[in-house]
Amino acid sequence: MRQARDGTFALLFMVMLTIAAGNTALQSVLPALGRSLGVRDAEVALAFSISALFWVLAAPFWAHRSHRHGRRAMILLGLGGYATSLVLCGMFLLAGINGWIGGTAAFLLFIVGRVIYGATGAAAPPAVQALVAGSTTREERTRALTLLASAFGLGTILGPALAPYLILGHLGPVAVGLAAPAFVFALFGVAMLLAVWRRLPDDRSDDSSHGAVNAYPSIGGQSSGASVTAAIAPEGGGRIDARDPRIRWWLFVGLVMGHAQAMTGQVVGFLVIDRLGVSPVDALGATGLVLMTGAGASLLAQWGLIPLLDLRPRALVLVGLALAAAGCSATGHAATLPAIASGYALASLGFGFVRPGFTAGSSLAVDASLQASVAGKVTSISGASFVLGPSIGVALYGIGHAMPYDAAAIACALLLPLGWRALRN
């Protein structure tokens, strides 16, 4: 029995990892794709933002449907939407690469595929959480859901790391090139869909276990832990306004920090191309290295340094903001690959401190009856940052290549005195 349960958990872990890795892999190649197709950088940012917007809007809807339609059905829907989206994105990009349609038309159709991912991919994570919560004891639940959430973080490393090695040449007369990662990760999605269809039983459980909204899986957007808190908290608790003085400054810090992270993460592909002076295709390996280094630094903070240092939430936020400000400034003015990677890693390390810091601070500010409400607001802020953040970052990048990084550094620096005065443990 335990062996079967462990096998189910491993399958669900892979579902979460696949959804995150495929999305971030595509994000890591989009700047190179846009430049190769002659598409404006702003249109590339639009592809990021629209997908995140639909995820943010759809996630609460799907989170409350697993009891009615079954968790297996919701996971299959999410994986089906994920695979369909990637296949369509790959086909539209293939058409643009081979000149069958114009670059702008290919990218606009590509955005349609991204909408499908945002609207349906959000169905799977809450259902996965609910299945895990329903199959574990109360003592096991927090650990199991936390481990499950780490799959998203691991996916943000594996996606950009694998993407440069998935670029193909020609298949007969057809040039595949930068469209290949979309097709490869679509195959992973189909494999996961078939495994879930065969191994998970149909269910419409009446137990009290439930999932929660998950933030949009994006480069640099590691889990804050709020989704786990919401999944563990009993349903039907009280509600709290985001302007409540107990949590408003914690949420404000999270909102500003999230936009700073989204701005800097989504333009790093353009920065590598322009600072190193290489072609978009040649920049893919370097871009993957920078993104993988940043994701690794963020996970090092959350999985290693924070438990080791045992800092309080206020200290986590203040230390993280200082590191993020220094790292953003260093990245924006770096001229070599080692300098870009080091600066981005330092910024990501700082963001890796701030994200769990503002999450824990918000949670500790209220009693148990409000935990689910606070966790929902934290998750919404984390997801919403990737709706406008990429477009703001690209707009600033058009003014000057260092601008999004300088703006993020200034924002983090200005938050330091505010955090010192307004945040309380």
TrEMBL record:
- Answer whether the UniProt record assigns the keyword Transmembrane helix to this protein: yes
Note the superkingdom of the native organism.
Bacteria
Gene3D superfamilies on file: MFS general substrate transporter like domains
Keyword field: Membrane, Transmembrane, Transmembrane helix
List the transmembrane segments: 44-63, 75-101, 107-132, 144-168, 174-197, 249-271, 283-303, 315-335, 378-399
Where does the Major facilitator superfamily (MFS) profile domain lie? 8-425
Q: Return the InterPro entries for the record.
A: MFS, MFS_dom, MFS_trans_sf
Q: Which SUPFAM superfamilies does the record associate with it?
A: MFS general substrate transporter
Pfam families xrefs: MFS_1
| PANTHER family cross-referenced by the UniProt entry | MEMBRANE PROTEIN, TRANSPORT PROTEIN
> What is the official name of this protein in its record?
MFS family permease
Give the organism, scientific name: Sphingomonas endophytica
The organism's taxonomy opens as:
Bacteria, Pseudomonadati, Pseudomonadota, Alphaproteobacteria, Sphingomonadales
